Please model this.
Amino acid sequence: MTSADLVLIDGVVLTLDPKMPSAQAIAVKDGRISCVGSNQEVKQCIGEKTQVIYLEGKTVLPGFIDTHVHVVDYGRMLTWLDLQGVSSIKEIQTQLSERIKRVGAGSSRWVLGRGLVPEGLLEKRLPMCHELDVVASDNPVVFYCQSGQVCVVNSKVLEVAKLGQRSDLGIERDLTGVPTGVLRDQATNLVWSLISEPTLQEFYEATELALENFSRLGITSVHWIVLSEIELAIIQKLLEANSLSVRVYLIVPVNLLDLALQKLKPFENGFFKLGGAILFADGYLASRTAALFEPYSDSPFDKGKLLCMKNEMFVLADKIQNAGLQLVIHAVGDQAIQEAVNVIQYVSRNPAIACPRIEQAAVLNQHLICCLKELALSVSIQPCVVASEFSVWSAEKCLGQERTRWLFPVKELLNCGVLVSAGSDCPMEPLNPLLGVEAAVKRDGPQKMSVFEALQMYTTSAAQISFEIADKGSIEQGKLADLVVLSNNPLSVSVDEIVANVSVCFTVLDGVVYCSKN
Model:
């Protein structure tokens, strides 16, 4: 028997392969799994040059696959002030003061922050603009909350954005009508549009920072959702430098399809695939731009709107299919999903590429679920986004009880045989797949999932949705050795404390690419 390059032994191997659900050990040769089985079986693969890792009962899973992440925006966010875990407004002021010293004072020096959790602060509220002004009166300051579309700004931003003169919903005001600095929902866009864009080099460095973080969370593959043309230049530069440290299935907006085919298609290899193109049927629930058949319950004259009509969508969908890429349609509201279904019914199918998929598919009904099943469509969701729709957006108030029952009916989809994968929508929500698993299993009501079902969405289902199941998604002989080693078995810990009790110890992707210091 040929000696392995790497052997993981004496562990709890959850293969996600129904033919052999569990094992003790894995052997890896030339980046692929050469043997899965008992300790005794795999020990026969150990040679003089084999790297042997004794797992001591740790759990091995297929590497996590995030099917919806905005890599460049995530990297950009990582350069911001990290406010996760701060315990008081005074501590926020201290960190802000230190950052001002680093970047220098002045109106052109924006200070951005992320991860604020008001409930975690001593004061149990967000800081007000005047509390930020104490240490940052000259620099524009914007701090974003960890969940939801919420941020807090200082007076410099209020002045630059002229928010005191605006009457937009979402600009929080005190009893005298003066803005407090807290912005919600669409009002956050009034500030975002003012922040100066980084240079190409700054974008590139931020993207490298993002790529480094994936392996720390056990993520070995991502579906990178491109939002802007500059990202294509960044990706091309990464590919030319052979700098990708995670497998990328790229999904580009349809308006950049021709450019992506020209610039990136030639670089396809084991780490990169130009996989799909996305078109947008509607917007989002939080901004009431998701297209519904009936008005929002708390806004009787507002039904959202379609961003792409049927005839235009048909032409674009056909173009994507003819290019040999997966057709991805962002459709949130029931009207938009129906429009997407209508188009997919008539678009020509290419059996050599992945089946069309609906991104989000939030507001469903029994008829639409049947359509998804009959057309063999897949659905990509983000469990932390689902949780935020209920906890932050107040779904029942905005949609009413009946439609809320059909909001992200993941369990119903699974029971009907619809393929559902999971992603993060990072940086809008946290990247950590274990947070997504916990969110899926902690959901109240009939749509609550089992831990195993949630893990499948990040592994086997995620591989199937992109037509890559032959290489990824389960631990089987011959497949890529993309693996994550966890401190504890997520199937054995309390479903309410998965993140607290389970951490990533190792990530394997063409060898060990991450090893925890703990």
User: Anything to note?
Assistant: Residues 34 and 219 are 21 Å apart (CA to CA). The chain has a mean pLDDT of 94. The chain is about 30% helix and 20% strand.
